[in-house]
Every structure is written in structure tokens, then in C-alpha cells.
Design goal:
Rossmann fold; 3 domains; 42% helix; 334 residues
Length: 334
């Protein structure tokens, strides 16, 4: 029995005609490196099986409360939507809390034939979303660093390099007691950020103090809590590196509530370079992550794969850069 229309995939057609998924995609999109006879045959089989591309990409975001909205996803989504519009693709965005329900959400996305490809952001260690997409041979692209290997599309940012940049800057400013507020360690980004932090501290001959290592979720409220914890130690840090800008803003608020002057009594740095970073009081030193460009690049790569177009690279790295502002050195702005 032929698959029902809503279940037909390029893989189904490829198996039916004895060709690769890439060859089927290229035939359906009229690429001339596939003979006309073969193109027509594949198109006929696709019609008979009821295949119809949706020209839609899927993105499942973590469910967040309105108070905990994440600027990273807003900027990423804007980049993805921009690139999708260039090729007249639609974007289906839904949300789901991480956990068992998330697997069902991805299965519905895959089996429901509502989208032709999926975009996965903020990869985790042993990411079950990526493993499922691999298993189902469903087209996808990953945005962010990942420990998984294989033939899949990815756009990453080198979080470890970003951590090294801020630690080197702080060490050059004379800081020796440097603390870290990392993001949740189930994310591969956080593991890489910790690796970069530790590597740069060793390079600067500075001790990595276990008591100065903590983590926070992606909210200002939890960053505030983490800042309070670090600043209540018997010996307090002179600089705090946060692995996220929103978290850094919470750390700054905690320090200011204790009467500390940011940039003079305590240096604080973030990661991401969100719009609020530039207009914080004081402006936040941070690592610029080209979030909009990450979304654009990932979307363009996935669409190219879906249309059977040749890709120059399947794994693209967009390097971070340091943006120095008042929060790490008040003297720079006086």
C-alpha cells in the first residue's frame, strides 16, 4: 500500500524510484544535472504517491512566560523569517516545554507533512530532537554548537572563543578574582563557554575558584539571584562573567542594590549583544553574537538542501567578537 498523502516524504519517493533523496529533490526542482527522462519519471511517481511540498519550515521554541521572553529567539526568528521570505517559504512556529512532550511535538511536525524541514536552536548534550530527526531522515539544520557528529547542516558560533575574549579583556584590566554565571549546563553552548572560560583563566595564570562558578536560567530574575549569591561570599569577585546578556543585567542589578558601582567596584560582562546591552546603565561589555545572521544563514542552507542546490559548506562557523563598554571599565568612558 502506498503511503498516505500526508506521510509521503522525499525519502519515500527516493526508495520508490531507487535514487538518493538529493537526486529526487533536484529532479523535483528541475535541476538540469538530472536527465529530463529521469526528472519526468520521478515527478510522475511523486504525483502518484500524493507528494506535495509545503514550502514551509518548522521551528519549535521553548515555552516561556511573557515575563521571561528571550531576546535571543526574537532576533533569531527575525533572521530566519527574512531568509525564508527571500525564497518564498513560509515559517511555522510553535512552542513546547522541553521534555517528553517535545518529542511528540517534533513527531507531529515530521509525520504531519506540515513542513518540509526543521530548524533546531540551542542544541543540548545528547539532543533527543536531533537524534529523532536523524532517525526519521527528516531535513533539518542546527543553530549553535553541538557535540553530535554526522552529515547534517549546522551554523555555530564558537562559544568557547567568546568566553576567552571576555576573560582576556578582564585579565588585561588587572582582575584576578573572576567569577562565572553560566547558562544551564544541559546546553552544549554552556559546556563550551565553561571550557573557554577555564582555558583563558589558565592562560592568564589565574585560579578557577569553584566557589565562583554558578549558573542561571535565561532570565534577569535568576541572574539577580546568582549575582546576590556571588556577592555574599566572604571573598567576593572583582569581575563577573555572565554567559548571557539578560543574566548579566540581573547580576548588575544585584550589585547596584548592594551599592556597588559597575565598571569601578565590579566589572560585569555578558554574551549576545542584545539591544538592551547598549542601553543598560551602564552600557554592558559583551560578546557580539551575530544572531540575526545565524538565523539567516541556517535558513538559507536548509532551503538550499530542500531544493537540491549544492552547498559550499554544510558546517558554517560565524565567529564572535568582543564589544567593550562601560560595565567592565568605567575609565574608558570618563
Amino acid at each position: 500500500m502506498s503511503p498516505r498523502k500526508e506521510e509521503v516524504t522525499l525519502k519515500d519517493i527516493a526508495e520508490a524510484v531507487g535514487k538518493s533523496v538529493a537526486a529526487v529533490s533536484r529532479a523535483l526542482n528541475n535541476h538540469d544535472d538530472i536527465s529530463e527522462e529521469t526528472r519526468e519519471y520521478i515527478k510522475q511517481v511523486a504525483r502518484e504517491m500524493g507528494y506535495a511540498p509545503t514550502n514551509t519550515l518548522g521551528l519549535i521554541l521553548p515555552a516561556l512566560s511573557p515575563r521571561d521572553s528571550d531576546p535571543y529567539y526574537s532576533e533569531l526568528l527575525a533572521g530566519i523569517a527574512s531568509a525564508a521570505a527571500e525564497r518564498e517559504f513560509d515559517l511555522l512556529v510553535s512552542s513546547c516545554a522541553p521534555g517528553p512532550e517535545e518529542q511528540w511535538a517534533y513527531l507531529r511536525l515530521i509525520n504531519g507533512r506540515r513542513v518540509d524541514g526543521a530548524i533546531v536552536a540551542r542544541p543540548r548534550w545528547r539532543d533527543s530532537r536531533i537524534e529523532l530527526l536523524f532517525e526519521k531522515k527528516f531535513p533539518f539544520v542546527v543553530i549553535g554548537d553541538t557535540n553530535l557528529t554526522g552529515n547534517f547542516l549546522a551554523v555555530s558560533e564558537e562559544a568557547a572563543v567568546g568566553a576567552e575574549l571576555v576573560v582576556e579583556h578582564l585579565a588585561n584590566q588587572g582582575h584576578e578574582r573572576i567569577a562565572l554565571v553560566n547558562t544551564p549546563l544541559d546546553l552544549f553552548f554552556s559546556s563550551e563557554f565553561l571550557v573557554g572560560f577555564q582555558r583563558a583563566m589558565r592562560r592568564a595564570n589565574l585560579p578557577v575558584v569553584e566557589d565562583f562558578l554558578t549558573e542561571s536560567d535565561f532570565t534577569q530574575r535568576d541572574g539577580y539571584r546568582a549575582g546576590q549569591t556571588l556577592l555574599s561570599k566572604t571573598e567576593t569577585p572583582t569581575a563577573i562573567v555572565a554567559a548571557d546578556d539578560v543574566v548579566a543585567l540581573g547580576v548588575m542589578a544585584a550589585a547596584q542594590d548592594q551599592g556597588l558601582e559597575i565598571g569601578q567596584d565590579l566589572a560585569v560582562t555578558g554574551y549576545g549583544d542584545i539591544l538592551l546591552a547598549e542601553y543598560a546603565q551602564p552600557p554592558l561589555t559583551t560578546v557580539h553574537r551575530a544572531t540575526y545572521a545565524l538565523g539567516q544563514q541556517a535558513c538559507r542552507m536548509l532551503i538550499a538542501r530542500l531544493l537540491g542546490e549544492k552547498l559550499a559548506q554544510e558546517q558554517v562557523v560565524i565567529k564572535p567578537s568582543l564589544v567593550i563598554r562601560q560595565s567592565s571599565d568605567l575609565a574608558l568612558w570618563l
